[in-house]
Amino acid sequence: xxxxxESGPGLVQPSQTLSLxxxxxxxxxxxxxxxxxxxxxxxxxxxMGVIWSGENTYYNSALKPRLSISRDTSKSQVFLTMNSLQxxxxxxxxxxxxxxEAFDYWGQGVMVAVSS
Amino acid sequence: DTVLTQxxxxxxxxxxxxxxxxxxxxxxxxxxxxxxxxSGQQPKLLIYSASNLESGVPSRFSGSGSxxxxxxxxxxxxxxxxxxxxxxxxxxxxxxxxxxxxxEIK
Lengths: 116, 106
Prior knowledge:
Shape of chain B: globular
Shape of chain A: globular
Low-confidence stretches of chain A: none
Number of strands of chain A: 11
Distance between the termini of chain B: 36 Å
Oligomer: heterodimer
Strand content of chain A: over 45%
Low-confidence stretches of chain B: none
Helix content of chain A: under 10%
Order of helices and strands of chain A: EEEEEEEEEEE
Number of helices of chain B: 0
Number of strands of chain B: 11
Mean pLDDT of chain B: 97
Largest interface: A-B, 22 and 21 residues
Helix content of chain B: under 10%
Distance between the termini of chain A: 39 Å
Structural class of chain A: mainly beta
């Protein structure tokens, strides 16, 4: 069955770099786009960016200077790297799969706190 | 960017019908999708492409609309439906979400 699971450090210091991994199963990264979405505590959802099945990427312009998404198809993993973290980057980070049109499968999310 | 506007909260009695609205500042055709997010959980897809029920989702959920005005209807509302509901457009990048509607029980 289709599954996605995020992993990474729960705590990052301000100005440091966040590295998250999304490990997928049940589908191929060369057939589906994988997106990252985040959610600050008690707030709504923010789309961050996508790595398309063809490996091209597209980022939210507000995050583009700091954000990078890549993948390793041999390991079925997608990576998110974001630098210069600030407290407002605190939240839950989700990876998900875009099906025909919408996000049909989501990971459980990983909580990231930015604090010294 | 396409901005999606939702009412912050709605209160409804169990067994009643509720409609949750989502309005966009430009046409998204039918590239509108609805998600349910319960407390402490990841979002779950309910409706895709404005009116298509995702597999496994109860038939008391339905969606309608096109262009700039969309609605998610729950009829009848059950206690398990207490959640936040988000609309999301995929007509253009960046993909954007509404701010969410919190469904409460009277």
